[in-house]
Amino acid sequence: MSNSIIDLSDKVVVITGASGIQGPEHAKLLKQAGAEVVATDIKDTEIILDVTSQESIKKAVHTIIGQYGKIDILINNAGATGKSAGDWDQIIKVNLTGTYLCCQIIGKQMTASGSIINISSIYGLVGPDFSIYESAEYAGKPMGVHPAYAASKAGVIALTKYFASLYAPKVRVNCVTPGGIIDNQSENFVKKYSAKTMLGRMANKSEVSGAILYLASDLSSYVTGANLIVDGGLTARV
Q1: CA atoms of 197 and 237, how far apart (whole Å)
Q2: 86 — pLDDT class (breaks 50, 70, 90)
């Protein structure tokens, strides 16, 4: 990738929640930019990393540094959405505490000029329009937004600013806040959601990955503590 404006050929990237909906797409684009990508998750990846466990994170970091010698970029992609009221604790534990623990433990091990990229959601910025979820389905199951999801994603944005200040100037810490991503939702949901955006559609997976690639690269070398919103203009419209 030496002829590319974005060259990550000397970078080691760690992705949490890498076997989820967005993880493989992030990994694909970062690899295309030349990065050595280390995919981690609680299952289905070579390196197991449970973001809710300090010991699991420390063990994974030890293994990664042993194999690759360093960590340059961390993408806190692991997340939980939940369905029932009883899921509150687990959602907070994965989305907010997990992001905190990974920023704290992995961030301390990162190289100078490192980059941490956290993942929030538009529901960390605005309340859901519940009308678009009426009769909506994802992969044949009813859709909705759990209150803990909104609370945790708002917290991720605050944590981003905190760690950006804490780790400056050695490590940059930024946040990507995606809107709805097209992925097997029912037709009625896609239509209703798309009508809420300025661009008239949901995002493709690669469009969120593009924002991550920018924040991982030197193109964003003077960007830290920022929240990059990738939502087709949904939250910009009053």
Answers
A1: 8
A2: confident
CATH no. for residue 214?
3.40.50.720
Residue at token pair 């200040």: 165
Rounded to whole angstroms, the Cα distance separating 140 from 32 reads: 33
d(CA 101, CA 103): 5
Per the domain annotation, does 196 fall within a domain? Answer: no
pLDDT of residue 139: 85
**How far is 150 from 81, CA to CA, in rounded Å?**
9
Instruction: Identify whether 149 is a catalytic site residue.
Output: yes
SS3 of residue 230 by DSSP: strand
- Strand arrangement, sheet containing 36-41: 47-48, 36-41, 12-15, 73-76, 114-119, 171-178, 227-230
SS3 content of the chain, % helix, strand, coil (to 5): 45, 15, 40
Query: Which tokens is 37 given?
Result: 């990508």
**Host domain of residue 121:** 12-128+145-185+202-231
Q: Identify the burial level of 145 via C-beta atoms within 10 angstroms of its C-beta, where 0-12 means exposed, 13-18 middle and 19 or more buried.
A: middle
- Say whether pLDDT at 102 is over 90: yes
Whether the upstream peptide bond of residue 142 has omega within 30° of 0, thus cis, is no
**Number of structural domains the chain divides into:** 1
Structure tokens at 141: 């199951």
Is residue 135 included in any domain, yes or no?
A: no
Q: Is 19 part of a structural domain of the chain? A: yes
3 falls within a domain: no
pLDDT one-digit tens code per residue, 167-226:
999 999 999 999 999 998 999 999 999 999 999 999 999 999 999 999 999 999 999 999
Which is the catalytic residue, given 100, 123, 149, 193? Answer: 149
